[in-house]
Amino acid sequence: MPGRLRKGKSKNSNRRGRICPERNLCSSGWERLVCGILTCNGIRHRHRPREYKLTLEGGRQISYTPDMEIGDLIVEPHCYPDGPFLRKMAAFKDQRPDKKVILITPNDALPEIPDGIFAEQLPIEFCSSTEPSGNILIQVIKSMTRRRAGACRT
Fold first, then answer.
1. 151 with 41: CB under 8 angstroms?
2. What residues are paired with 104 via a beta bridge?
3. 16-25, 40-49, 60-69 — which one is most confidently predicted on average?
4. What's 111's DSSP letter?
5. What's the gap between Cα 127 and its chain centre?
6. All domains of the chain in start order, with CATH
């Protein structure tokens, strides 16, 4: 079942440029950082475009709204993934196998993340460069989406 578009949110992807038109939807500094990197490299993305209904083990219904989407790819900057977040993401992976999720988190949190939930787990420390060749996030997105990203224009 496809995710439902959220009311009042833009359906349009951002345009090439240095400022994302949906940047005001960023809820954290990390999300703003990742948004800036994507925008700077010409990677079209949307902020919180859909809400997915999920069923956790035990039958409890919850909703999940991804931070950012790039086609079928979801980017989740998350400071310290806790148990509820990981359970939600495991349910999302099981119920939406067509979507791939990249988790961006501190390097010291990576050992605590169970295998198999995320398509990629990247340390925020390696995702801060705006140059595509120096940014692991841009390299991973390009390989997963088969898109080309250009250098940031200043």
1. yes
2. 77, 122
3. 60-69
4. G
5. 13
6. 18-145 (3.40.50)
